[in-house]
């Protein structure tokens, strides 16, 4: 069977065809509009499983934070007993840039974390608060914004 001859149109490669099309007005508005959202100052990580496995997953995160270019501290508030000085060394963390703080007297870990965030002497304050209700989360966010810091809560299951 023979098809009638139709003149062939030149086919543009995929990206050239896309670039040849004018930007849709909506897309253009979105691209040209400046980003105004505030950066996130609170993150939460949930790890479940054997304690050793959770620590192995946590090690590279804390190591990266301990090597941050920011001259301020990485502060760990009331870390679990398994986060010993030996573990910190073996995990390759820069222990000269880490503060390990425990609440004293009637002070709670939450209060200590908010104070550490508010003071702004730490680039990141890591907590192990569980459960973490909405009110406490908002307190951590407000304190982090005041101190220009990051709050990271880790839930170990």
List keywords for this structure.
Rossmann fold, 39% helix, 5 strands, single chain, alpha/beta, 6 helices, 18% strand, 157 residues
How would you describe this protein?
With 157 residues, this protein is of the alpha/beta class. The chain has a single domain, classed as P-loop containing nucleotide triphosphate hydrolases (Rossmann fold, 3-Layer(aba) Sandwich), CATH 3.40.50.300. Helices cover 39% and strands 18% of the residues. It contains six helices and five strands, in the order ααβαβαβαβαβ. It has a five-stranded parallel β-sheet, sandwiched between helices. The mean pLDDT is 84.
Secondary-structure element order, N to C:
HHEHEHEHEHE
Distance between the termini: 69 Å
Shape field:
globular
* Largest pleated sheet: 5 strands, parallel
Rg estimate, integer Å: 25 Å
CATH homologous superfamily annotation: P-loop containing nucleotide triphosphate hydrolases
Assign the CATH class. Answer: Alpha Beta
Uncertain segments: none
Q: Mean pLDDT, as a whole number?
A: 84
Provide the fold topology.
Layout: H1 14-20, H2 25-32, E1 42-47, H3 51-66, E2 73-77, H4 85-90, E3 98-101, H5 109-119, E4 122-127, H6 134-147, E5 150-156
Pfam families: SulA (PF03846)
InterPro entries: Cell_div_suppressor_SulA, P-loop_NTPase
Protein name: SOS-induced cell division inhibitor SulA
Give a summary of the structure in a few sentences.
By secondary structure, the chain is an alpha/beta fold. 39% of the residues lie in helices and 18% in strands.
């Amino acid at each position: 069977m023979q098809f009638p001859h139709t003149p062939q149109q030149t086919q543009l490669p995929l990206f050239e065809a896309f670039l040849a099309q004018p930007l849709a007005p909506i897309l253009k508005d979105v691209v040209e509009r400046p980003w105004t959202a505030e950066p996130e100052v609170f993150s939460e990580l949930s790890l479940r499983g054997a304690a050793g496995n959770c620590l192995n997953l946590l090690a590279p995160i804390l190591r990266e934070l301990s090597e941050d270019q920011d001259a301020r501290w990485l502060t760990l508030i009331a870390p679990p007993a398994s986060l010993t000085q030996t573990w910190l060394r073996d995990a390759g963390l820069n222990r000269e840039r880490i503060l390990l703080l425990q609440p004293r007297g009637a002070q709670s870990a939450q209060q200590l974390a908010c104070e550490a965030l508010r003071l702004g002497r730490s680039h990141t304050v890591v907590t192990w608060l569980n459960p973490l209700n909405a009110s406490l989360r908002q307190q951590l966010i407000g304190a982090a914004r005041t101190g220009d810091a990051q709050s990271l809560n880790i839930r170990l299951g």
